[in-house]
Amino acid sequence: MLKFIIRRLIYMIITLWTITTATFFLMKNLPGDPFGEAKQKLTKAQLQILYEQYGLDKPLWQQYLKFMGDALKGDFGVSFQFPTHKVTEKIAQAFPASLELGLWALIIAVVVGIVLGTVAALNHNKGLDYSAMFTAIVGVSVPSMVLGPLLSYYVGVKLGWLPPLLWDTPKHRILPAITLSFGTIAILARLMRASMLDILNQDFIKTAKAKGLSRFVTVFRHAVRNAILPVITALGPIAVNLVTGTLIVENVFSVPGLGKHFVQSIYSNDYTMIVGLTIFYSSILIFVLFLTDILYGIIDPRIRLAKGRK
Amino acid sequence: MKVYKVLTTAVVVSMLGSVVAACGKSDSASPSTSPSSGSNSSAPAAKQEIKINFTAEPPALDNSKATTNASFTMLNAMNEGLYRLDKDGKPVAGLAKDMPKISDDKLTYTITLRDNLTWSDGSPLKASDFVSSFQRTLDPGTKAQYAFMVAWLKGGEALLGAKTPDEIKAKKAELGVKAVDDKTIEIKLEKPVAFFTQLLAFPLFFPQKTDEVTKQGESYGKDADKVTGAGPYILKEWAHEQRLVFEKNPKYWDAANVKLEKITMNIVKDRAGAVNLFETKEADLTEINGDFVKQFEGKPEYTIKKELTNSYLMFEQKKAPFLANKNIRQALTMAVDRKAHVATVLKNGSVESTGLVPVGTSDGNNGDFRKLSGDIQPKYDPAKAKELLAKGLQELGMTQLPSFKLTTDDTEGGKKSLEFIIAQWKQNLGVTAVADAVPHELRVDRQHKKDYEALIALWGADYNDPMTFLDMWTTTSEFNETDWSNAQYDELIKKAETEKDPATRAKQLADAEKILMDEMPVGPLYFRSKVYAKRTNIDGLFFPSFGPEFELKWVSIK
């Protein structure tokens, strides 16, 4: 297990370095520079002074080496859009809101998705199956840019049940979390249903039934436990997507999260922010995939044994 | 093995538990009976509090590094310059006791501060706080993107370009700003600047609490507790990307005339969301645009903010040589129904252009430039535009205009404007143009490199004077990105730059604008406005036409 972890760690570092380097050079190929609005007002000489101040007048390889040197010390530099903030500070400020929103959405999605998928599989080709899958299809089909404003307007403004937007009290979390979880519920429900149907037809389930085990024990101890594996595999990247911020939901509900920075930093050529966010996002994704692997080993002994044999 | 069985069962059981718990939770959290939170609807009208939706997080509350109107707005609420602009855009004494004493050569400004000025924390505010602020903005190490505005000061450009620490120190000492004593500031300019008193109201010219700047270093202006002002309000809370909360500053010199006790600015980018907050009384002031404008039209809350921003077509004469023909440029501009454009496409209170300089721009002589210059842009006239096009083509020996690209920002408004103008050209002139919508940064970049044929641009004023719209079109100006050149125009601008008599100067600038409207190197489209929904019980709020988004000092709730 230790060998496996060390090998994976080395792969992770190589992957991260590759992503960072590629992002750095791709980003420098973006047309324009990070001085947006000010650029329209600056003469070429004034712009040149700014380039010098930010080290953008140096050859690309020198800029890259300086950046990598600083990055290894955990310093990604100051954001061009927010000149009083370091990139790491900006991420630290915005990430908690995205993380909280994402976790709420994840909990809703996992619970509702797995229940829907299980119920559908247990009632294969019956009314409950069709209605559960219909719900899932609606979930996949209605994008958050439509669902968010609808919920905000009808539940928040018309009915007045919940705050339509902003991010103050626990109540403010409900609508954005539901909006964000909608698409994921559908994905997980369909995945769970397919997986459950597959497992329910396996011999060991028939054996369990033949042994006279109760339906409850058969379903939860044998079927769900095995059927949940593909869901867990999918859950890693899904969780990362949910917790690292989503532009649309955060915009609609004015959540002070990370989502907008992903897009805005690219639009405004905020070099330091782009690379900082890329490293941050990649690190989380790589780490979660690593965790998924380990979790897999815990849930399915066969995988662990296979690794042991290696 | 058993351990894993137990573990696995525990995972499954806990998941089931969470299903049940979640179901229970969602039942108990059923919000149908809960009243909407924090609604202000039943609050007495006399409560001096206001909630505002603001569309952007201020990037920095360090007035040296501020570049956006979000920063300017917040800084203007919590701090003050020597002067503050009143509702007519005229400078009135702020931290200065009275108007500046200006030398005969218009190069030296001597300004006396009010007595007993203090920062919001009670410490004394001195003339040296202005000096150190100006020096810091121009210090290359500060990396201030708008430093060019302070570079009007004598020696400003030299300090900005200083390379070594010793050179920076020397240039700071030579900079044209001195604290004669604790209450007197002397500013020297490189050349006369007719609107300099007004410029001193701009946040770039605010003072900075020197010891705080030293203590905070790079962190100055990063959080509510890392910046101190001397303005009408104190920044009490800044939850980044979420809200800023201001409270009245009891130590402000004019606190007796500040009525608001609390201002909450929520950062709301989504236009539908902004309207939702206004509807649920969670916002008293919000910008509205797009289809929401119609919803508020004719209602008492409907408020227009006129800006000193114009939009115009630019024609690059080398990239598309046929655009070097004056008649063709005239035809293309005249063939656009500007009135229909603002009414059907923009729908944001913007008005059709009647020249290049927007309505509301001062003429530098206590008058309105638009009134002085008149409606000099040729009216929309498809028939005449067709004649001009034919004439232009004849001069060029062409039978028809080749297809060319029209470039602009890929914003929603930008794309709609593109479609509208291209359709107008097709319909009225039979001219084919191809839409080229690109991200804002790329548009600016192409404009800078003159890598476009025709382009829709926007220009916002840096100060309230026609010069901000006119001096950029001279032959030597780096902002003249059209390759148009006119000696007579250059001459008029050059004269106006050094003219000491305001009336003569205003006349010279009006004459210069007439040349532009005859030559049409750029074809004005509209003067931009914004639409706001504002509660009717808000009194004393006005919208400066440039810089801060709104002025909050004199606001009260009726």
Automatic annotation (TrEMBL), chain A:
<keyword id="KW-0812">Transmembrane</keyword>
<keyword id="KW-0813">Transport</keyword>
<feature type="transmembrane region" description="Helical">
    <location>
        <begin position="9"/>
        <end position="27"/>
    </location>
</feature>
<dbReference type="Pfam" id="PF00528">
    <property type="entry name" value="BPD_transp_1"/>
</dbReference>
<dbReference type="InterPro" id="IPR000515">
    <property type="entry name" value="MetI-like"/>
</dbReference>
<feature type="transmembrane region" description="Helical">
    <location>
        <begin position="174"/>
        <end position="192"/>
    </location>
</feature>
<keyword id="KW-1133">Transmembrane helix</keyword>
<feature type="transmembrane region" description="Helical">
    <location>
        <begin position="101"/>
        <end position="122"/>
    </location>
</feature>
<protein>
    <submittedName>
        <fullName>ABC transporter permease</fullName>
    </submittedName>
</protein>
<dbReference type="InterPro" id="IPR045621">
    <property type="entry name" value="BPD_transp_1_N"/>
</dbReference>
<feature type="domain" description="ABC transmembrane type-1">
    <location>
        <begin position="95"/>
        <end position="296"/>
    </location>
</feature>
<keyword id="KW-0472">Membrane</keyword>
<dbReference type="InterPro" id="IPR035906">
    <property type="entry name" value="MetI-like_sf"/>
</dbReference>
<feature type="transmembrane region" description="Helical">
    <location>
        <begin position="273"/>
        <end position="299"/>
    </location>
</feature>
<feature type="transmembrane region" description="Helical">
    <location>
        <begin position="227"/>
        <end position="253"/>
    </location>
</feature>
<dbReference type="GO" id="GO:0005886">
    <property type="term" value="C:plasma membrane"/>
</dbReference>
<keyword id="KW-1003">Cell membrane</keyword>
<dbReference type="GO" id="GO:0055085">
    <property type="term" value="P:transmembrane transport"/>
</dbReference>
<dbReference type="Pfam" id="PF19300">
    <property type="entry name" value="BPD_transp_1_N"/>
</dbReference>
<comment type="similarity">
    <text>Belongs to the binding-protein-dependent transport system permease family.</text>
</comment>
<feature type="transmembrane region" description="Helical">
    <location>
        <begin position="134"/>
        <end position="154"/>
    </location>
</feature>
From TrEMBL, chain B:
<comment type="similarity">
    <text>Belongs to the bacterial solute-binding protein 5 family.</text>
</comment>
<keyword id="KW-0813">Transport</keyword>
<dbReference type="GO" id="GO:0043190">
    <property type="term" value="C:ATP-binding cassette (ABC) transporter complex"/>
</dbReference>
<dbReference type="Pfam" id="PF00496">
    <property type="entry name" value="SBP_bac_5"/>
</dbReference>
<feature type="region of interest" description="Disordered">
    <location>
        <begin position="26"/>
        <end position="45"/>
    </location>
</feature>
<keyword id="KW-0571">Peptide transport</keyword>
<dbReference type="GO" id="GO:0015833">
    <property type="term" value="P:peptide transport"/>
</dbReference>
<dbReference type="InterPro" id="IPR030678">
    <property type="entry name" value="Peptide/Ni-bd"/>
</dbReference>
<dbReference type="InterPro" id="IPR039424">
    <property type="entry name" value="SBP_5"/>
</dbReference>
<protein>
    <submittedName>
        <fullName>Peptide ABC transporter substrate-binding protein</fullName>
    </submittedName>
</protein>
<dbReference type="InterPro" id="IPR000914">
    <property type="entry name" value="SBP_5_dom"/>
</dbReference>
<dbReference type="GO" id="GO:1904680">
    <property type="term" value="F:peptide transmembrane transporter activity"/>
</dbReference>
<feature type="signal peptide">
    <location>
        <begin position="1"/>
        <end position="21"/>
    </location>
</feature>
<dbReference type="GO" id="GO:0030288">
    <property type="term" value="C:outer membrane-bounded periplasmic space"/>
</dbReference>
<feature type="domain" description="Solute-binding protein family 5">
    <location>
        <begin position="90"/>
        <end position="479"/>
    </location>
</feature>
<keyword id="KW-0732">Signal</keyword>
<keyword id="KW-0653">Protein transport</keyword>
